[in-house]
Design a protein that fits this description.
This protein is α/β, with parallel strands linked by helices and 401 residues long. The chain has helices spanning 17-30, 66-77, 94-100, 103-108, 139-143, 174-183, 185-196, 231-241, 250-257, 275-278, 306-321, 373-381; strands at 4-10, 43-48, 81-86, 112-115, 121-125, 134-138, 146-150, 152-156, 160-162, 200-210, 218-228, 268-272, 297-300, 332-335, 349-352. The protein is built from 12 helices and 15 strands. Strands 1, 2, 3, 4, 7, 8, 9, 10, 11 and 12 form a 10-stranded mixed sheet that branches. Strands 13-14-15 form a 3-stranded parallel sheet, covered by helices on one side. The longest helix is centred in the last third of the chain and has 16 residues, at 306-321. The termini are far apart. The structure holds iron/sulfur cluster.
Length: 401
Amino acid sequence: MGETKVSIVKTTQNPGYAEIYEAVKKALDMIGGIGDIIRTGDLVLINPSWVAPPVEREAGCITIPEVPRAIADLVKDLGARPVIAESSAVGVNTEKVIEASGYRDLREMGYEVINLKKTPYVNMPTENGKIFDTVECWELVQQADVIISVPKLKTHDQTEMTCAIKNLKGLLTDKWKRLEHQEGLFESVIDLLTALKPKLAVVDAIVCQEGIGPVFGRPVEMDLILAGKDLVAVDSTCAQLIGYDPSETLLTVNAAARGLGVINPEEIEIIGEPLDSVKRRFLRAIEDDPVQVEDFHLIHGEVTCTGCRNTVMSALIDMRNADQLEFLSGVWVLTGGALLPDGVSRENVVTVGKCMPKESRTERHVKGCPPNNAYVVKAIIGDRAAVKRMYADDTLDKTES
Ligand code: SF4
């Protein structure tokens, strides 16, 4: 057993603030408290997930306000200044998420709750970045002495799971969130991790999501709080908690490969609830109600990873929800270097992702790694109808690819 600790604390069903405060405190005490990472006078940025509506607790989409509130109260006890701050997904109005959820109430109670999209931005250097030498973050992120990731644990339609590491993407500007998709999410999120150097993660695993997360997944009640100072170890543990081998969650793998934390379960000491007593296999995004349409052809190449597999599947589900499956007829979608079958006209082919060799890309190619779901839908539909964005306010035209 190694030095790296991750704590797991069970709550009752639908816990209130007092119980969540006690669970968070217990989870932090189990990993040695936070006195070693927070000093009097520090500015402590507490980063929940406000990815998009739905904001209701039972939907399991955003971090519920009680968890960052508990952390803020504990930070205040140390004489530091807690700020709860985040920017929602591209095209999503963060203020609406704050207004519709309990975060507005926190503001009224005197907590600092900041919509980062309304604040200035700066460039921050990465450390040995693989994709980016700098990342465009909000100024407050640069000013913070300590960053705490407070994710909601969910399956994810592009990265299998979203937890402590992926959650940090909310500290990027919208422009940079898009760039990360274009240039390669699985390494650029790790570049971001090297720039931010978060010191703690506290996971809201009270109501989680399985299937097509991270917004419209199926809620799963787990009633757990997890905490750890090594975000890779936290994500490795959460991956196991929901039925993955950590080697299946690429962000965790890539972070560990760069020496940013411990992924090996044998080197992580789990304190509190035994993992085996609380784990539950979550439905993976790829297993969730696949779309089948006659005369539509999807071919994944040898190198296609879960990023493009899940992205295309998610795009098809968006089309089904928007009642647009008719546009799939006669279309071929190729990913990961798949070869165009003989006799198929290029004009009927949508190629997807950075892995498609340049010579194989058609005029309907969708760039990105993995690309934004909405652009896959746009490439399929063309000008025949408008792309309906499931949770964003901005039109697709305003959301640059
Ligand atoms: S472009 Fe390639 S590496 Fe990137 S998500 Fe798609 S298949 Fe994976």
